[in-house]
Amino acid sequence: MSGLLGAKVVITAGGGGIGAAMARAYAAQGAQVALCDIDKAGAEAVAADLPGALGLGTDVTDEPAMEAFWDRALDHLGGRVDVVCANAGIGGPVAPLAEIAMDDWRACLAVNLDGAFLACRRAAQVMGPQGSGVILLTSSTSGLFGVPTRSPYVAAKWGIIGLMKTLAMELGPMGVRVNALCPGAVDGPRMERVVAAEAQARGMTADAVRALYAEGTSMRSWVTAGEIADMAVFLSSDGAKHVSGQAIAVDGHTERMT
């Protein structure tokens, strides 16, 4: 992809899964990456494999911790940021709304939505005066549909879409593009935990739940973290220089949710 050699990239939740795949994909294009993750060891391990990368343990719901991460990242990247991937998220509780505890609701929204706000606020403060940049928020196909037993997660991921749309309007005149990635079911440990929770809540086997996810797509398949990262790289490149304000699904075309 053009335009990413020497780019400065910040990624939240970069210590595993989609975030780690993003970090590797950007580095493969010649970008320099600063990433954080609640899993400090994971963040450090991913960064250690990438040239000139920084990896820090950070709780994206903790405002002072996020400001400290941003300070370190900007110092490491020379004061400039070209791409920000607000990627942190958790699946949250799996249960009917009537059975969800307030603390569990708040915890899910805090990581998914508050974390995105804190990442994007500092990105806007840097990129606006800079007059350029790309912000990518990780939503989900759950940000496009309703999903029974997943109300906190769905509410947060729909909120991500609204945040993205508004930020695209605010920053577009300054030369900053903002989009949201909407992954479908992504192979990996995180979705395996979601599948296990849904299987228990529904009285089904994990294999049956996995099959339902695949059957809900036109392509009858799951996607990989690498495929999400490939789309992130494209959206950050000159090839997407007029793509902004979009919720872009990488999901094999979801027809219905489980």
The CATH architecture: 3-Layer(aba) Sandwich
Please tally the β strands and state the result. 7
| CATH class category | Alpha Beta
Topology as H/E string? EHEHEHEHEHEHHHE
Our count of domains comes out at 1
What features would you describe in this structure?
There is one protein chain. Helix content is 47%, strand content 14%. With 258 residues, the chain is an alpha/beta fold. It has a single domain, classed as 3-Layer(aba) Sandwich (Rossmann fold), CATH 3.40.50.720. 50% of the residues are buried. The model has no long low-confidence stretch (mean pLDDT 94).
Put the structure in a nutshell.
With 258 residues, the protein is α/β, with parallel strands linked by helices. The chain has helices spanning 17-28, 40-48, 63-76, 102-130, 151-171, 189-202, 206-215, 225-236, and strands at residues 8-12, 32-37, 54-57, 83-86, 133-138, 176-183, 247-250. It has 8 helices and 7 strands.
What are the defining features of this structure?
258 residues; alpha/beta; Rossmann fold; globular; 3-ketoacyl-ACP reductase; oxidoreductase; Sc_DH/Rdtase_CS; oxidoreductase activity; SDR_fam
